[in-house]
Amino acid sequence: MKKKSSRRTFIKQSSLSVGGIMIVPRDILGGVGFTAANDRINLAAVGAGGKGHSDIRDAAGFNSLTNSSKENVVALCDVSSKEAKRSFEMFPKAARYQDYREMFAEMGDKIDAVTISTPDHMHAPPAMMAMKAGKHVYVQKPLTHDVYEARMLTEAANKYDIVSQMGNQGSSGDGVRIITEWIEADAIGEVKEVHCWTNRPVWEQGMKRPEGSISVPDYLNWDLWLGTAPKRPYHNGYQPFNWRGWWDFGTGALGDMACHVMDPAVRALKLKYPSAVQAFAPFKVVNWSRVDSLDSPPPASMVYYEFPERDGLPPVKLTWYDGGMMPPRPEELADDEPMGNNDGGVLFVGSKGKLMCDCYGANPRLLPKSRDEQFEAPTPTITRVKEKNHQRNWIAAIRGEAEASSDFDYAGPFSEIVLMGNLAIRSLYTQEEVSNNGKKHMAYTGVGRKLRWDGENMKILNYDPANQFVKREYHGGHTL
Prior knowledge:
The protein has helices at 7-14, 26-29, 51-60, 85-90, 100-107, 124-132, 147-159, 174-184, 222-226, 252-261, 263-268, 369-374, 390-398, 408-427; strands at residues 16-18, 21-23, 42-46, 72-77, 95-97, 113-116, 136-139, 164-166, 191-198, 276-280, 285-286, 289-290, 301-307, 316-322, 344-350, 354-358, 365-367, 431-436, 439-444, 451-454, 459-460. Helix 3 (51-60) packs across helix 13 and helix 6 (124-132) runs parallel beside helix 7 (147-159). The chain folds into 2 domains: 7-167, Rossmann fold, CATH 3.40.50.720; 172-384 and 407-469, 2-Layer Sandwich (Dihydrodipicolinate Reductase, domain 2), CATH 3.30.360.10. The chain is of the alpha/beta class and 480 residues long. Residues 43-164 form the Gfo/Idh/MocA-like oxidoreductase N-terminal domain. InterPro entries: Gfo/Idh/MocA-like_OxRdtase_N, Gfo/Idh/MocA_oxidrdct_glycsds, Gfo/Idh/MocA_OxRdtase_bact_C, NAD(P)-bd_dom_sf. GO terms for molecular function: nucleotide binding.
């Protein structure tokens, strides 16, 4: 399908070259949706605490020495005044909100672009609202909480012709580009096997929902924090950090880190929808019966992905590991050499050799070390990000000075891959009524299943109970 023309493409195609000088119509450069290089962009943040603080700080180009920014921060939205305090102090002139819907209603015409750095379950609604209003969006990883949301945001970014970016910052680093160039240069031959691992979770998982309730702190709007999730009493075990370990709010270790760790594999091998996914995770048994938490991801997991042939590349099997799980140590790796780094890593297994990198695609090297030392890297063919800063890369893309490293055309399908793993993990805990010798009982029918995935139609073909995890029900009056 032919990709629709963007405004920046139109500018290039509409330009005239006279005597080596490029002439661009002034009304095109000054039109709606285009920001000239010398104009300051008006930014807003939905989620200004935690990671949201560094996202809006870096997007604005804040300089702590001069206490000034390259862009204007005009609005900050956060449900917790305590978590947002640093951002409030850094940008004292910005209007303050708790509800993003009120922010867009009151300041929509004053906002050019928005960073969204909320818990995972609240990424999609404000992102969609912003795009429908013509705002450029930077959304933390994973792009969304479920597969359906990721597809909708990807389509919306194209429909509304905005500049999008997902917050997997390794995408703006040199490592993912170097790895792609090496693989395209046949440095390790055909790649049919990849292993990705992380040291996460560094928060508790596999928990039961806490009983009772605690008084909601004065600084927190609990109903707005719950957002699309079902109502429940407040408990400090849910926030500000541990939301990652609850299915209603987060996406576990896989959702938290796979958009960082898998990035070089997805990019270099041009991966899109998997054809099959299978998950493995521990479960607890008491008195011969399983005692599972349906509220929280397991403390560890492995996910096997199968990807079909694409663009002349062979099928690929990719395995994900978290919670202390790791792939077998490659024989080519010396005993005193680390596997990846403390955060995780990737191992590419090719027909001619192996390639390993750290988390975020950093420090790529061939195995064994002697081969890496003799290797002559190919001439770079992929443009490097000038500032090595992911948020500023997004700003440069808004100005038409660069391509966004992880726009939704890439990040949307990538997030679907990641979230398919969570769908497979959650399917391990689904039960159905079965009959055995004429007696009916509930059984865990998802264990050991390889789920066949129709990516285009977002549907599991061979186990219908898993389809409940493709799209979830919204609560709290939020919509896409």
